[in-house]
Amino acid sequence: MSETVRSTPETLVAGLRELGFTITLAGGDQLRVTPESRLNEGARRWIETHRSELTAELQAEHGESTAKVLELAHERFGPSHPFDPSEHPSTKREAWTRPDKEWFFFSHRCPGGAS
What we know:
Blueprint (H helix, E strand, L loop, with lengths): L8 H10 L3 E4 L5 E4 L6 H9 L1 H27 L14 H5 L2 H7 L10
Antiparallel strand pairs: 1-2
Helix pairs in contact: 1-3
């Protein structure tokens, strides 16, 4: 890494990307940097030294992208509203408990049903 790179999280992640690396979070605070074959020992030590800053920046990016997805969904589909069961058809469970529908779901239990 160049000594002219500023030590701010945004610049650290951007710097790796400019060098052709892809850096992602792989669960928790695990970092995945690819292509791994291009990482020499010095780059590995540098990443380990800056792990917390890199992780913080990637987590912030994830939060921003999640917020953007929610914003786009809101623009496209409108505001969400609480679930109202009266707006939806009855569930299969309700149909299963109706004697006149039992043959459909449990024909093997009914006289003359499929075996």
